[in-house]
Amino acid sequence: MFNLFLLILFLGVIFSFGWYFVRVILGEKKITHLFALGPFLGLVFYIFILNFTSRVIPIVINFYLILGIFLATAACLFFWSRRQGEKMEIDLDKKWRRIIGITAIIISLWAGLVAARGLFADTTYTNHLPTAATIAAGNFPVKNIAAPKELLKYHYAPEIFAAAARRVTGIPLWRAYDLEKIISVWSIFLLLFVLARYLSGNNLVGYMVALAGVYGGGLNYLHIFDGLRRVYQKFFLKMEIPDFFSFIPRIINGEIVDPVIGTINHHWTAFGFPALIAVIFLYLVSVSGSIRKRWLTAAVGAVLLGFLALTAEVFFGVAVIALAAYPIFLFFKNRGFGEEVRRAIFISAIFLTAGLFLAMIGGG
User: What is the pTM of this model?
Assistant: First the structure.
């Protein structure tokens, strides 16, 4: 039976681990970076560790065991940060905190509402819900349900999360997929904002890039004006509008090209998009950071790259090409092997070597 308290506890432990990992281990103090990276990295590490350790520990035990380890680790990191007197850096003024926070909450819940009210590939494709159900029952390493003697060659990271949420909290599997969409849009929007602001140094540029990144890919967002018309007719003119909410899915689901907020209804992109953005951001931070931060951030980025192979193979390929090409781009830009180019080659080598190794042994 579904237990809301257990769901809050489940997500709270995972997000807290990610938050304090980013804050203490990576040494990141900026509040926007913590909100963007913390929850998603906690989720990635939970799935990543489950995928590797459940080969020797039954996954039905591991669902809880790793949560316990995460809880203990988060508590230790919390007390350590308190002991060190480290404080977060509020890197946005009050106006921008409100704008970014309210926007992230609205579009995340909006995406979750659309996912909950619709039937997408996640809830209709035969390899999703049944596979997640068998993982929740102990199918690991994951066997192909259509050929039980064979291991599943598939991007099953979303199924691992759905199975864990189902086993721990009792949430219906199809609602676990809806939950993935909320987490995905929250992470995509904030990661795009952080990445664009990191490159431009401008809050407005970061905000517009984040919005364009979530709703770009077509002109579907113009249906919002139809929504405003319907709101006026229903609440001011008191007209009866039988399909009042129909403008919402039209904003999200395109007829030719879906924007990101529509594409994330395919389970592999829900985790794939934020993981790809996080890889790019951590790579740029690694190239420009101090020696200690360079190693740590590159190591985490390599784990994310390996995770991409388990959730979005296409994005994994894109990331590998980009990481290999960036030092070459810098070489021609700087006209030689300067310090920046040598750092980029070094960081790319870490990302690609560790990321490709993890991808090869990660399954899927």
Answer: 0.85
